[in-house]
Structures are given as structure tokens and as C-alpha cells.
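Typical record is below.
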Amino acid sequence: MEVISIIMVGIVIVAVTVLFMRPDKTTQLVDKAYKNYSRRIPSLLNLAFLPDQSTLSNEQKRLIASLTDSEWEEWEDLIVKVSAIANAFPATFDEFLKECYPDIPKRNLYKEPSTKNSPIKTSVSNKIECLTLYELRSIESEPKDVWEKRNQERIDASTLLNKCPEGGKDYIRLREASFVSSAEILRNKERILNIQKKYNEYHIFDGWEKKQENFCSDIWNVNKKFLPNNGRYTYMVPFQKPKLDGTLEVSEFKIWQFFKASYSPFYQEEQSEYYRNMLNKIPEFANKKRYYYGNVYDGVYSFIEGITNTLVEKPLILFITSNSKEWSKETFDYHYKHLRSRLDENEYTWCNLNDIQSINENTIYKSVLIIDFISTNDEMKKNSAYVIEFFKQSISFVCYFSIIKEYDEFEFKKIIEDIKAKEKTKKTVPSNTIKPEGKEKEPILEDYMLQNRLFIKQQYERVIKHPFFSYMAITNSLVGEAQGAEYIMPVWLTNHSTYKFRTMEGGSNKIAGSYSIDGGKSYTDLIMTGDSASFDDQVSYATLLFYRMGVIDFFLKNGRKAIDALNVGEYLRYH
């Protein structure tokens, strides 16, 4: 019995030993997984690399052992299938992963591409390696048409963002999200388009005022060439300018107004015969009992052609057919008939300002000429601002041509004052008399001086100056210390640095100054009896000054260029 007992105990010990030495089922499954499916284990465990099997925790082992052979094989098969989808739609698939699995870059197995310029397929391949079996199943289960739809959405969204770069960036910034899907971008298409429209309008208007000012210089030269006898004024026109945030701010731009004739309803009892006659003609123009001959409108047409040749493209012509005087549209059409016929013959685009909505606001016109038969300053500014504010997507340059201009009260008051000053001077001092201080008459050739004076007077009459500037300012700009003199003097004077002139206080009935012909080392006073407010006396003084300085021949030769430079620079236009 003892022998049997000993044998039985031995068998039990052996059995227990064998039992504990056999690997359990979990270990067997882990071993098999490491042997056949090691590439998927890091993704399953969210590790950056395959760990040494001996370091696995029990939880990690159970997780590995939880997958059957068929599931491991399915995982490998899904990697191939999902990769095929990614290869067919790489950019779309990458966007899909960013939207649906945004944590992938944070997974331990994920590897950033070696360079920012790496192909997108490389980046997508790295991300697919990080996907779990269940994520792959979900992705692969979607039919092909879903991917085709996503791909088209991405293309459409990309096209929209290329078309609206600032609008898209601003929308995404306002979303405060690290990623915005193509579908969401398309859902907010109108909002993005509106944001871009605001950006476009802002950029178009940004700096436009300076460009319009340069255009004014060009258009002045055109008018001088084709209609040199026309009246002309510049104005600053207020208008609503778009800001980046879509709101509006008030700015202003410069504009030339050219005109054939002028009148004013103010100071009627003090008007000259010319202005009284013109004022009396206005009702006759309104009733179509008076009109201008075709040659007047032919002159306007030549001006329009001049604009075309200067800018190498035809301007848009806008006709004004209504005003505060309640003239009928038929009246305006009656006066515009000949000019419109010329425009039609030569295929110019024109329309009435009231019908401007019929013009595509996105059509690009480099310049717009507004034609108005009769206009007040307020109407001119209002119409000009309206045109600029209409063409927000392709803002044009603009100028204004009035057949008849109505002066406002301020302008006409200055005109009346100038007329009175000239008449007063003619009664008290002969306009061609030059009386230097302390001498009865300057010992010069009378005919020679009169001829020079006539030329100087003709040039001084061409100067565009602010009403507040005295006529002495013209001389001071040509050869003195006034603003712009440093640019004007080289235009007409040789060795201009040797000539200097400065004005002096002459007292009552005196025009005074001192000049130098040695670069300012010494000065000689020149004082003449006359009225400093008199245009004729100032011309006489300039004639004598140029003669004394020895530069009169320079002015006879280049004086016209000097006055042109003075006007283009507009040194005397603004006070």
C-alpha cells in the first residue's frame, strides 16, 4: 500500500508541474499575433512601436488576445481597401480624416511627413496605419458615391476659397476652429461671398482718390487741347467709401468740371451785361425756344475723342436728364440729340444717369464722363458721388461737363468783386501806365514793353488760382519764394538759381518787391504805383520786373510752358 501511495503522489506532482508549465490560452494568442500580425499591434495598443512581448501588461495581453484570426486578417484586408479609397481621393480622404478623426496626429504611432512638401498620399498612408479595426470598418462601409460627393464638395469649396481668398480666411478665422469642412464652407457660401465683396470694394477704393487726382491732370490737358476756351473749375466731392468691416466712411475726391457757358441767380442787380443776358436765356433753353448749334456739341465730342485717345479706350457717357429746376426729360433729350447721334455713329456706350441700373455694375469702364446741360454745384457733386458709389466692383475715373454752369453764391460773389476791382482800377489808373517810384517814366522802348505786356497778360489770364490768392502770387510762383516756385522756375529760366524775388509791403497804391540776379548776394527794390488788387497793374509790374531782371526774353520763349506747369501742379488752385 505504501508503494502505491508513493506512486500516486508522484503522479499528482508531475501532473501539477505539467499543468503549470503549459502556456495559457491568452499567451498562445499573443504569441500567434506577434508572429503573424505584429504590424497591427502598435495601432491596437496606441503605441509608437511594437513592444517587447515580455513587457506587456495583462490588460494589453487580453486586448491582443481578444481578436480572432479572422479579425486580424480582416484588419489587413481593410488596410488594403481603405488605402485604395485614399489613393482614389487623396485630398478628400485627408480632409475626411481631419474632420472625423481629428485626434490621429496625437496618436503615438502617427509620424509626421519628413518635409512639408511630402506628397499628400504619404501623409494619408501614415494616418491609415494609425486607424483601428473598427474605424477601418466604418470607413470602408461607405459606398463609392458618398466619396464622389465628398470629392466634388472639396473641389467646389476649393474653387470658392480661391475665388474669395480674404472672404474664406476671414470666415474660418471667425469660426475659431482648427478645421472647417468643405461641406460647411459650401453651406456658408453666400456669407463668404459677401465678406469677399467687402474686401474687394475696400481694396478698389484704397488709394483711389490719389489716382483720380492724377486723372484730373490728364483730363485737364485734354480739355486744354480740344476746348481751350471753355470754363473749368475743380471741386472736392464727398462720397461714401467702404471700409474693411463693410461699414462706410466719408472721403472726398477731386473732380474737374468743364463748361461752355455760365450764369448765376445771385447778385442780379450787380451782374455784368454778359451774366444778365445769360440768366435771361435760361427759361428759353428750358422751353426749347433757344438751343446751341451743332458745332458746340461737336466740340464736346472732340473732347470725348481726346479722352479716348489719351486713355486708349472709350469712356462711358452718362447724360443727366433731371434736375432741381424740374426740367422735363424731353427738354434734355432735345438738347442732347446731336451729341448722342455722334456717339451712336462711333459706337460709344452711353445712357441716362437715371437708367444706370441697366448697366452691369461689374462692367469695367476706366473713365466716366457725365454730361449735364445745366447744373448747380450741389447737383454736380451729388451726381459724381452717385456714379463712383455705383461702380463699387470696378471704380472708374470721372469728370463732369456742363453745357451751362450755375455759379453758387460764394463763387459769384468773388466774380462780382473781381469785376468791381478791375472797373475801379480802370477809372483811377490807366492799365498800361507804369510809374516806378521816383521816376516819371521808365526809360524803355514803349512799343517793345507793350508787346511784352500783352503776351504776359495773356499767360497770366490762363492761370487757375484760388479767389483768395492775389495776382502777385502768380509772379511770386514764377520767380519768387511761393510754393512750387522751385519746380516752375527751371521750366522757363536758364540758370534759375541766380534769380530771386521777394515781395515787400508797398503801402497804399504801391506794388513793391525786391529782386536779385546774383543768387541773393544783393537785392534791388522795385516799387511801382498801382493797385495790388488790380490784375492789369500786376501784369504791368510783372512786365517791368522781368525786364529789369533781364529774363523777359526767357518768358517770351517759355512762359506758356511755365503757366502750364503752374496749372498742372495746381499750386494756386487751393488756399
User: Anything to note?
Assistant: The longest strand covers residues 248-263. The mean pLDDT is 84. The radius of gyration is 44 Å.
